[in-house]
Design goal:
This protein is α/β, with parallel strands linked by helices. The protein contains 22 helices and 25 strands. The chain has an eleven-stranded mixed sheet with strand order 14-13-23-22-21-15-20-19-16-18-17. An eight-stranded mixed sheet has the order 5-4-3-2-1-10-11-12, with helices on both faces. A four-stranded antiparallel sheet has the order 6-7-9-8, with helices on one face. Strand 3 and strand 4 form a beta hairpin. The radius of gyration is 29 Å and the shape is elongated.
Length: about 575
């Protein structure tokens, strides 16, 4: 489920002449019956609202009153003031100017004709108050208080994210409400400016529009709307003509495939960066420890790795995932293969439970997905079936994945042309709506290029260059920097006469030995291209291999050794 809460304005939206009709009340009740939270967001003061709507406590999970200045939680009978109370000096200045007003916990409520007098009183007293208009009414609010800030306080109470929220309004003071919502809705008779900024405008006016939206979209999880909200799409890169290439933030089932060291992790990092910048939550299962550098991004936490005891147990993980800001990388590299599958199964169960309750995390990302859900099947495969929330799977090829998992794929991104074609053939053989395997212009993909296509009849692949990552990716930081590669994958400094046999089982040792070998030995391997070949074929880092190869091919270089060592050290911190 994507939409876990609906926020509604009162006057002019769910109420006409101050009253909520029977049909509207029944539709609102269906929202809560569906397991969603129903939040009322209004400019009215709470006592006045109780008089107008006697069933207030029974109808709503939370009430944001005074245009964001007060939060009321009916189940707890709890009232929280979210803004400063009206200043005594301001109240006196308004009285002296003959302004008729009512005082709330933080709001001063009056009428539009008193706007100039109210503004003069604010200037005279030097208080921080904002004038907000609402169809003839005027509110003087503490600085920074809006319907949006009050609504965010309500969502925080329920541990819900604005990315799982729909909101409906009709008036000038509803702009802040709609701005917070993932899907913003204006009723047909809303003020023109609100209709222009809304994602969706109902056919019906006022309460009839609310009933229409609930029956057609809320109960259906807004699937017809949210997936098409282009303003929320995640940008992956640009085509040769400069057009942005995006994927939906909701409902994506993205399969990323390609050989090792061809850019899959770079694309994964771009997706994660976009999620962080959009303040969306995610959980990334990282079997090989490839993604610890993502912790350089705001709010990203990596658990596991060398000290695999730090991996959270299922109950702890469920608590972590309940936070709307949770951005977790679970590093499983300290576990055996069997332990990885067992832990991943537990983690996926925790993700499923958290998503059922709140829609969090917004994205589940599984690197080396064939380790967790191999083609021969595993206990984790069932839990990787795609639902309405987004799923991203990274693997070498589609045929390595369990069939049940493959059937949930809605888009394929590939870093190699042959892997792309093979994936479509595999998916088509299992009944995916792939009409034909498309011809791709432009020849083989170069480094940094990706092919992306939706899975559907007539879908056209798009070729694009992946956006530059802001956080530099370093593959297998622990394993390749300080771990122990087997002898057949280690680098050997032997020299032109094979007089040496110095083994470097990791990058740290490579740098240490490289600094000590004689110039003839260093030059021998440099001219043969041995350094870049080892980086590509054994370290599996194509980007580093390209950079080292550029040094190897620079025949005029006299500083090749320090340049190569600097490339390695800056990338792997050894």
């Amino acid at each position: 489920m994507i939409i876990h809460a609906l926020a509604v304005d009162y006057d002019g939206t769910i109420a006409q002449h101050g009253q909520v009709g029977t049909t509207t009340a029944a539709a609102l009740a269906r929202v809560r019956e569906s397991g969603r939270r129903l939040l009322l967001v209004t400019g009215r003061m709470l006592p006045d609202l109780r008089n107008a709507c006697p069933d207030l406590d029974r109808m709503f999970d939370a009430v944001v009153a005074e245009n964001g200045g007060l939060l009321y939680l009916p189940a707890r009978r709890e009232v929280r003031t979210l803004g400063d109370p009206p200043e005594a000096a301001l109240v006196e200045a308004l009285r002296l100017r003959g302004v008729s007003f009512d005082l709330g916990s933080s709001i001063v409520a009056t009428d539009e004709p008193y706007a100039e007098a109210a503004l003069a009183a604010i200037r005279e007293t030097g208080v921080e108050r904002t004038l907000v208009f609402n169809k003839g009414s005027l509110m003087l609010l503490p600085g920074g208080v809006t319907k949006g800030t009050g609504l965010l306080a309500a969502l925080t109470t329920f541990e819900l994210s604005p990315h799982n929220l729909c909101g409906i309004g009709d008036a000038e003071n509803d702009h802040a409400l709609l701005a917070l919502c993932e899907c913003s809705v204006a009723v047909a008779d809303a003020v023109p400016a609100l209709r222009e900024r809304a994602d969706h405008v109902t056919r019906g006016k006022g309460p009839a529009g609310v009933v229409e939206f609930i029956e057609e979209h809320v109960v259906a999880d807004a699937a017809a709307l949210v997936g098409g909200l282009a303003r929320h799409h995640l940008t992956l890169g640009r085509t040769a003509s400069g057009e942005s290439v995006t994927i939906p933030a909701h409902g994506s089932g993205l399969l990323v495939i390609g050989p090792s060291a061809t850019g899959k992790s770079t694309l994964t990092g771009v997706v994660v960066e976009r999620l962080v910048y959009a303040q969306r939550s995610f959980c990334l299962l990282d079997p090989e420890g490839d993604h610890e550098t993502l912790t350089e991004l705001e709010g990203v936490v990596a658990l596991g790795g060398k000290s695999h005891q730090t991996l959270p147990i299922a109950d702890e993980l469920r608590q972590l995932l309940r936070q709307p800001s949770a951005r977790l990388v679970l590093n499983l590299s300290g576990l055996t293969m069997a332990e990885k599958v067992v832990y991943a199964t537990q983690a996926l169960g925790a993700v499923a439970a958290a998503r059922s309750a709140s829609g969090l995390p917004h994205w589940l990302i599984v690197d080396e997905a064939d380790h967790i859900a191999p083609a021969e099947g595993s206990s984790a495969a069932e839990l990787l079936r795609r639902g309405s929330e987004s799923l991203m799977l990274i693997t070498l090829s589609a045929e390595r994945l369990a069939p049940d998992v493959r059937r949930g794929v809605s888009a394929v991104a590939s870093t190699e042309l042959e892997a792309f074609r093979a994936a479509l053939i595999t998916l088509r053989s299992e009944g995916a709506p792939v009409r034909r395997i498309p011809d791709v212009a432009g020849g083989p993909l170069t480094r940094g290029e990706v092919l992306l296509t939706k899975i559907g009849s007539g879908a056209v692949p798009v070729r694009f260059r992946v956006a530059r990552r802001e956080v530099q990716h370093r593959r297998h930081v622990r394993k390749y920097a300080e771990g122990e590669l087997p002898p057949d994958r280690s680098f050997y400094f032997r020299g032109p006469q094979a007089a040496l046999n110095l083994r470097a089982a990791n990058l740290k040792r490579f740098c240490e030995l490289a600094e000590g070998v004689d110039e003839a030995t260093w030059a021998h391997h440099l001219k043969r291209g041995d350094y870049s070949a080892w980086m590509l074929n054994q370290i599996k880092d194509g980007e580093l291999a390209d950079e080292v190869a550029a040094v190897e091919h620079d025949s005029a270089a006299t500083d090749s050794r320090p340049r190569v060592l600097e490339l390695v050290r800056s990338r792997y911190a050894v």
